[in-house]
Every structure is written in structure tokens, then in C-alpha cells.
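Whiteboard transcription, Tuesday session. T.W. wrote the C-alpha cells on the left side:
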């Protein structure tokens, strides 16, 4: 055992001079009392030279480039591409992201590609001006380009005095595109013109579009509309005649509509009744093997299909078509 510094030492152990705790000889801070037993001096750092600082800067730039290598606009090939085609962008990229290039090289490249870009830009502007002069400076006896297209104008007619068929024919003959709309109106009778998109007497270019709105008459009640919907269903799905549909609409065993509602539906049901008569006739022929005479009688019978004689005859005449 011997004394050394502020503690007593025995072989590879020593005792803290403050609390007497037995600790390892290399211990700097006593684990029991927390007092520092040795002073540790920091190694002196050598002052950074200019060469060392330059190396650190280059190393930092390399690390940044490695970190951002996935960004294509940081690549040199992209910088050169921009210098050739869009010089201002290329010059910006060169000065911003390529610090490894010498400053003198950057200056030369900036001047060369900048001048090249300006020359190309001025050349394109001169070509555009020359093209305009070629159009304006037309010789005597020649027609200017702006006057080549001779658009014919049409004076719009008063369609309030025309039917839809007449208006369609007029527009076709005068080169106008017609759009027909239909709306209910309390003031305009059914089939009359409520309005036209271009007033009568106005002049428009040939090929212009015009819209004419025709009246459906006064708007019907919900009852009338429902009767019309039902009537369309019987005509389209069951191929019934006009009279048969009317009877079905007013029947107490059928739809039970009032007679005025049923009549409204029939009057406003625009349908090909000859077609329905023919479909019924073919059904009797194919499913019941009936003769033409028997089919005709069934079509016009008041206890049968209730088609008119003209509709029934049409069906018989076209039965074998």
C-alpha cells in the first residue's frame, strides 16, 4: 500500500480521497460520491489552414452532390443541355449547383451561350415580322388574305307564320342550322311559335344556328300527364289500337281515368297505328294460325283489337313482307 495524489493506492485498486470508497485505479470520477479524482486536459487543436478549409469545402460540396444525386437538374449533362437549348436556365444551373467548375470557365460559358441565345431570339422575331409584311404588302390586282373568305349573310325570316315543317325547309334552303324545342305556354296555342333565338329581319352568317321554340299548348294537369304516360305504355308495349287504349283508360276495370283525361292522352299520342296493326296481325298468324280474313275481322272487331278498317287493311297487305 502506498499514497499517490489524493487517494491511497493498493496494487490495481485505490481509495477515494473524499469518501474512502475502494475503486479501480483508472477511475476518474468516484461512483459513490461523484467527486472528480483526475483532471483531463483537452488536446490542443491545430489551427485550420487555408488549404484545410478548401478541402473541407470541396468535401462538403461532394457530400451535397451525393445526397442530391437523384435530382436530374443537378447533373452536368442536364446543365449542358439547357445551355444549348435554353441558355438562361443552363447558366443559372451552372452558377447555382456546379461549384466545382472554375469561375473563369463559368464566365466564358455564360457569355458565349448568352450571346447565342440572344441571336437566335432576335432572328426568330425578324422572321415573324417579315411574314406579316409579306401578307400586308400585296401587289396591285391581288386580294389580301383577310378578304379571301366571302361569307354569305342571310336575313332571318319571321317563323311565327310558319309551321315546324315550313321552318325546317326554310332553314335548309338558306343554310341555317335549326334546333326545335317545345314548351308549354298559356298564351300561345299548340303548334305556334313561342320565340325564336334570332329576331326576324336580323342578318346572320350562312351556317349559323337558330333555335325555334314551339308551343305544346297550356300545361296539362297531373291527371292528364299520367293518362298520356299510360297510353304510351299500351301503344309501345302491348301494340294496342287507339280505340282500345282509350277504352282501357276510361274502364272501371282498367285505369279508371276521366273521359277528358283519356281523350287528352289519345289526342297527344303520336304513334304509328299501322305498325301496331301489323304486329297484331302477325301474332294471330304465327301463334293461332288464322287466315287473313279472320285476322282482318279480329283487328276491326269492337270485341277484338278495335283498329280502323284502313289500319287493318294495311296490316293484311303487308302481312307477308
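and on the right, the sequence the group agreed on:
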Amino acid at each position: 500500500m502506498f499514497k499517490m495524489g489524493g487517494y491511497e493506492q493498493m496494487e490495481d485498486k485505490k481509495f477515494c480521497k473524499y469518501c474512502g470508497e475502494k475503486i479501480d485505479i483508472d477511475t476518474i470520477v468516484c461512483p459513490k460520491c461523484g467527486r472528480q479524482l483526475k483532471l483531463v486536459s483537452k488536446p490542443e487543436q491545430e489551427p485550420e489552414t487555408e488549404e484545410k478549409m478548401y478541402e473541407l469545402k470541396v468535401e462538403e460540396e461532394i457530400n451535397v452532390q451525393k445526397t442530391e444525386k437523384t435530382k436530374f437538374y443537378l447533373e452536368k449533362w442536364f446543365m449542358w443541355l439547357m445551355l444549348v437549348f435554353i441558355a438562361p436556365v443552363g447558366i443559372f444551373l451552372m452558377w447555382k449547383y456546379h461549384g466545382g467548375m472554375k469561375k473563369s470557365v463559368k464566365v466564358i460559358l455564360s457569355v458565349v451561350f448568352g450571346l447565342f441565345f440572344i441571336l437566335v431570339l432576335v432572328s426568330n422575331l425578324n422572321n415573324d415580322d417579315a411574314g406579316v409584311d409579306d401578307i400586308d404588302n400585296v401587289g396591285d390586282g391581288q386580294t389580301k388574305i383577310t378578304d379571301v373568305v366571302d361569307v354569305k349573310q342571310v336575313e332571318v325570316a319571321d317563323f311565327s307564320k310558319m309551321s315546324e315543317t315550313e321552318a325546317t325547309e326554310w332553314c335548309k334552303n338558306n343554310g341555317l342550322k335549326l334546333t326545335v324545342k317545345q314548351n308549354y305556354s298559356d298564351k300561345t296555342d299548340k303548334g305556334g311559335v313561342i320565340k325564336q333565338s334570332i329576331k326576324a329581319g336580323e342578318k346572320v352568317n350562312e351556317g349559323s344556328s337558330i333555335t325555334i321554340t314551339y308551343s305544346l299548348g297550356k300545361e296539362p294537369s297531373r291527371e292528364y300527364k299520367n293518362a298520356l304516360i299510360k297510353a304510351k305504355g299500351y301503344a309501345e308495349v302491348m301494340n294496342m289500337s287507339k280505340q282500345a287504349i282509350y277504352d282501357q283508360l276510361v274502364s272501371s276495370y282498367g285505369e279508371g281515368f276521366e273521359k277528358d283525361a283519356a281523350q287528352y292522352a289519345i289526342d297527344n299520342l303520336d304513334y304509328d297505328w299501322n305498325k301496331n296493326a301489323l304486329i297484331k296481325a302477325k301474332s294471330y298468324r304465327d301463334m293461332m294460325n288464322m287466315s287473313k280474313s279472320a285476322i282482318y275481322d279480329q283487328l276491326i272487331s269492337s270485341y277484338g283489337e278495335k283498329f280502323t278498317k284502313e289500319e287493318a287493311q294495311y296490316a293484311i297487305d303487308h302481312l307477308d313482307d
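Someone added at the bottom: Strands lie at 2-4, 7-10, 13-15, 22-24, 153-155, 177-183, 193-196, 203-205, 209-215.
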